[in-house]
Amino acid sequence: MSTKLYVGNLLYEVSDEDLKELFSQAGGVVSTSVIRFRDTGRSKGFGFVEMDTPDSAQKAIDTLNGSDYKGRKLVVAEARPPKPRSDFGGDRGGYGGDQG
To answer: What's the pTM value of the predicted model, to 2 decimals?
Structure first.
């Protein structure tokens, strides 16, 4: 059973292949994904790595969280499921303010 990890505080230049190379030191890497803006393709500075086993995921967290990677301290943690999205784009709290 694979385990998905969140990886934060990445340089914008870091690629999926860079993440695969880095995390393979901790165990088998199933997939990597640097999250990018749709309109520009520029990295958002975080991504996800799917490790092949819970043990390799824990080893990656233990060895890489807080470590220096290309001058930045990595944040590595088990990924949480995404929050459900509202069809209305969030709680806007009504129809606006005083129109008077």
So the answer is: 0.82
